[in-house]
Amino acid sequence: MSIRPDIPLGHTTPAHQTFGWCSYCPDRSPAEELAAWQTRELRRMADETATTETLAAALSPAERTMLDYALNQAQLRMWSVGGYTAEEQAALVSLRRLTADEPAAGARQDGAQS
Ligand SMILES: [Zn+2]
Questions:
Q1: Ligand 1 midpoint to CA 48 (Å)
Q2: How far is the CA of 15 from the centre of ligand 1 (A)?
Q3: Overall pTM surpassing 0.90 (yes/no)
């Protein structure tokens, strides 16, 4: 790692790169730095949720249907074959959110009869 002349020796490099300060800086505390990291992470997670909702809104009803179909096939295959990782299962659950986030339109209501 290269020495950053703008970061005082003994201070926390990631915090300085991210916030421009760290808990070793004068007038700063560890609690303050922890709060800054937590706020940053919460904001990042909120951005991720917004991205998922934007992606879901961009899908047409047919695309949503096909994604749902593909995910069902993937889930069945994972269960029958086994050996899938928790990460793969989490990815499937994450993708399924794209199919579930339908705008509550009336397009589905007449589907029950046919
Ligand atoms: Zn510092």
A1: 29
A2: 8
A3: no
Please name the residue ranges forming H helices in 5-85: 13-19, 30-58, 61-81
Distance from Cα 38 to the centre of ligand 1, integer Å: 18
Q: Please give the chain's pLDDT, 114 residues, in tens.
A: 567 788 999 999 999 999 999 999 999 999 999 999 999 999 999 998 898 888 888 888 899 999 999 999 999 998 998 888 888 888 888 888 888 755 444 444 444 444
How would you label 26-64 residue by residue, b for 16+ Cβ within 10 Å and e otherwise?
eebeeeebeebeeeeeeeeeeeeeeeeeeebeebeeeeb
